Amino acid sequence: MVxxxxxxxxxxxxxxxxxxxxxxxxxxxxxxxxxxxxxxLTGPSGSxxxxxxxxxxxxxxxxxxxxxxxxxxxxEHHPGLVGVVFQSPSLIPALDVxxxxxxxxxxxxxxxxxxxxxxxxxxxxxxxxxxxxQLPEELSGGQAQRVAIARVLAGEPRLILADEPxxxxxxxxxxxxxxxxxxxxDSSGAAxxxxxxxxxxxxxxxxxxxxxxxxxxxxAAATIHTAPxxxx
Length: 232
Hints:
The chain has helices spanning 49-57, 97-107, 112-125, 141-154, 171-188, 199-202, and strands at 5-16, 23-34, 38-42, 64-68, 82-85, 159-163, 191-196, 207-212, 215-218, 224-225. By secondary structure, it is of the alpha/beta class. Helix 2 packs parallel to helix 4 (141-154) and helix 3 (112-125) crosses helix 4 (141-154). Strands 5-6-7-3-8-9 form a six-stranded mixed sheet, with helices on both faces. The radius of gyration is 18 Å and the shape is globular. The chain is built from six helices and ten strands, in the order βββαββαααβαβαβββ. It has a single domain, classed as Rossmann fold (3-Layer(aba) Sandwich), CATH 3.40.50.
């Protein structure tokens, strides 16, 4: 049985600038992400991994092509349905840890009581409750990244996009955090896409996407394929 698609894109491209100075971050690409997918997105720095994730999350718009979320509605209207772990933690400096974690639930319309319950549960899972009252400036880089992951989990998303989520973590902590992300995705049936340059991380997932110079390549079994390049 084939899972229903969460995200679909046709001939997606992302260009920055115009004319002779234009930079193509993503060449024409067709893609589909299904419910429950487990995908590693690999490629060198600057290859386009973040561009792909930002488009899929609805945080950026393609320069051309059609992108839709048939299994999610539009993430701009339902922000809790897509959770993004960014390369940098992106915590709000004026909010303490528990306030940062509950924020995504509040934005999604969850009641304050339920949002706080979700936040404390996510922090507990990641062993961070002792930091609940601290401000982001009081955290180490690794602690801040784990708080950002707790924030995603608290939102109970149906699609989790993680951009180098283990870059600031030691090997053991990274493995623990990935275990938690995968368990959360398994329990809710969410899809999980992890962008990484670490082959140990990539080897955890059954499907592999790779990107270089904005050109996406995948294994034969993956739920995405690259459209033929157009003459330029």
